[in-house]
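Archive record
______________

***
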Amino acid sequence: MDHVGKHGALKVSGRKLLDKDGCEVRQYGMSTHGLAWRPEFVCEETFRALRDEWNTNTVRLALYTHEYHGYCTDGDKNELMGLVIKGIELAVSLGMYVIVDWHVLGEMSPLIYADEAEIFFRELSARYGNCPNMIYEICNEPNGRTEWFEIKEYAKRVIPIIRENAPDSVILVGTPEWSQHCDEAFEDMLDYDNIMYTFHFYAATHLDSLRKRLSSCLDAGMPVFISECSITEASGHGDVDYVSTREWFSLIDRYNLSYICWSLSATTESSGIISKGCTKLSDWQDADLKKTGIWFRNRFLSEKN
């Protein structure tokens, strides 16, 4: 299915995400693991399987900035940018939406590599402009002692650069403490159109207090996009918590929120959906998947595009 052909460029109205006809839509799909570490899944076979076998409409490209082989540290910038572009082109060819994720994590504050982010998003937005498939995620998970005013300062540097070339594209902005404190951002939101704020959860770690925090912001009209989640512990390890998962997805359904699963990988992490040792790039059967993969596959198949 050509999702972008059907729904076109997305826009934010109030707290809702709308398509070209003004109908409310939900984006859902898989996030890659770090592109430098798991590049094999950035291929047509896998993206087509995610669309046709798993019924997803969105893929997220996780570009780590700080960690080993990070884009801003010792990674090969040309090679990594090539993977980002390859992923975007694949999504465009398949009519899928694509989130380009500037994966702030180890550096804690997005201001650390703000200069590099400006260059990256200038180049990317100049290349793709208002491509209707594109969603820009400018800082994955600010953490440590990073406060909202620092994230806002960073966003006010990067968003205008994207807007020079992509005046109408949806932009996702991370929030404090691993994108869990949407409430802090709500108290002093950015003054731009087509902005959503990210919220991340891992169901076996994050329980009622975070669900209440998110619900409060949504009830007050905050536009929120769950750009990363899983049903495991926040470490990416541990068993799944099906009870908490049901509570989270009841909330997601109640507010019709978009959500992206972490991660498309065959690592030892229980949050990696593919069983370690499986080398298949598509046509995954139950034996090829971890509990997380089976659960999210079934969830995606229940969605109405």
